[in-house]
Amino acid sequence: MIPFNKPYLTGKEIEYINKANSSGKLTGNGYFTSKCKKWLEINTCTNSALLTNSCTAALEMAAILADIKNGDEIIMPSYTFVSTANAFVLRGGKPVFVDIDPNTLNMDWKLIEGQINKKTKAIVPVHYAGFGCDMDEIMKIAKKYNLLVIEDAAQGVMSKYKGKALGSIGDLGCYSFHETKNIISGEGGAILINNKKLKERAEIISEKGTNRNLFNKGQIDKYSWLDIGSSFLPGELTAAFLFAQMEEAKKITKERLKIWNYYENGLRNIEVEGLISIPKLQKYTEHNGHLFYLIHKNNYERDLFIKKMSKKGVMVVFHYIPLHISPYAKNKLNFKKQSLIFTESLFDRISRIPLWLGLNKEYVLKSVIESLYEIKKEN
C-alpha cells in the first residue's frame, strides 16, 4: 500500500538531536530554537517569530493577543481544521463562517464585508493547500473596519502571495510543522508577529505569562507573572529536528512541486473530459506543492474512487467536515441553520492523492487515471 503521507527525513535530524542533547539544555529557547526563529524571520521577512508546540498553540496564542472576549465574533471559513475555530471559542469568541470560493477552496473575500458588525474582532483567512487567499482584498476590508487579520497558514510554509510569504501579511501568522506538512518536526508550529505592537506581549504569553525571556537575556535578575499565558514552547529536541528540515526547505519544496506538476500535467486532459476538476492556480499565488486534490462529480463517485485506489494499493483520503455542520457548532454554539453552498457541495466530493518525497508518482497517476475511466465505464 502506498500511504497517503510518509514523513521525509533529511538525514541530519538525529545528528542535531544528539547535539542538542549533549548541550545539556533540553527545554525551549536553546541553540536550535534560536536557529529556527532566525530562519523563520529571515525567510518570511517578519518582525518576529516564535516557535510553538503546534499550529493549534500558535492560533491559541493569536486569540490571546487579539484580546478575544465573550461575544466577540471572528470571521473564518467553515472548511478548515477545527483548531482554527477552537482557538477563539476557548477565549469566548464566536466563529462566523463564510463560504469558500470554488476555484480556490479559500474563503471568498467578497462575502466577508457582509458579515461584519460591531461585535467583529478579527478575520482569519485559511490558506488551503498552501494556495494563498487574496490577501490584498482581505487587508483592505480589515483596514476599513479596524480589524485584526490572523493568517492560518498551517499548510503554507514556503508559499507566497505576490512575493510575500504566507503568514507574513496579516497582523499574525500561524504555521504547522506536523508530520503531514512539508517541513516537519512531528508536532510543532510557529507564530509570526507581523504587527510590532504585539511583539512584547507575544513573548510574555509564550513564556507562561512571565517576562522570563528578559531574564534569559540577562536584562533582569528575576522574572515575574505579568499576563495570562501558557506553555507554548516546544523542547530543544523538537527544534533540533525542525532545523534539519528548515535547512533543506527549498529542496523539499522544489521536489514536492515536481510531483504536483507531474500530477497536474497528467490529469489536465482528464479534467477536460469532465471526469474530475483539479486545482486552479491563481496568478497571485506561488504555492509549495503541499497537496493535490480532485473534485469528483458527486459523493458516490468520490467514494468509489477511493475504494478503487485502495484495491490498487494507493491510499486516498478526503478532508475536513465543514465546521458549521458539526455537532459542536449545532449543539453548543447555537448556530442558526446556515447554508454555505460551495462548502457543502465540495467537501463531499473532494479526494486527496498521495504526495510525498520518494513515492512512485508514475504508479499513483496511472492508478488515478485507470480508476477514473473505470468509474466512467461503469456509469
Primary descriptors:
379 residues, alpha/beta, Aspartate Aminotransferase, domain 2, Aspartate Aminotransferase, domain 1, 2 domains, 7-stranded mixed sheet, 3-stranded antiparallel sheet
Brief characterization of the structure:
The protein has 379 residues and is α/β, with parallel strands linked by helices.
Description:
It is a single chain. The longest helix is centred in the last third of the chain and has 24 residues, at 249-272. The chain folds into two domains: 13-248, Aspartate Aminotransferase, domain 2; 250-378, Alpha-Beta Complex (Aspartate Aminotransferase, domain 1), CATH 3.90.1150.10. A seven-stranded mixed sheet has the order 1-9-8-5-4-2-3, sandwiched between helices. It is of the alpha/beta class and 379 residues long. Helix 9 (249-272) runs parallel beside helix 13. Helix 4 links the parallel strand 2 (73-77) and strand 3 (94-98). It contains 13 helices and 13 strands. The mean pLDDT is 96. 39% of the residues lie in helices and 13% in strands.
CATH class annotation of the largest domain: Alpha Beta
What is the beta-strand fraction? 5-15%
As a whole number of angstroms, the C-alpha radius of gyration is: 21 Å
The ordered string of helix (H) and strand (E) elements is: HHEHEHEEHEEEEEHHHHEEEHHHEH
Number of strands: 13
> Shape, please?
globular
If strands are numbered along the chain, what order do they take across the biggest sheet? 1-9-8-5-4-2-3
Overall pLDDT, averaged? 96
By helix and strand content, what is the structural category? Answer: alpha/beta
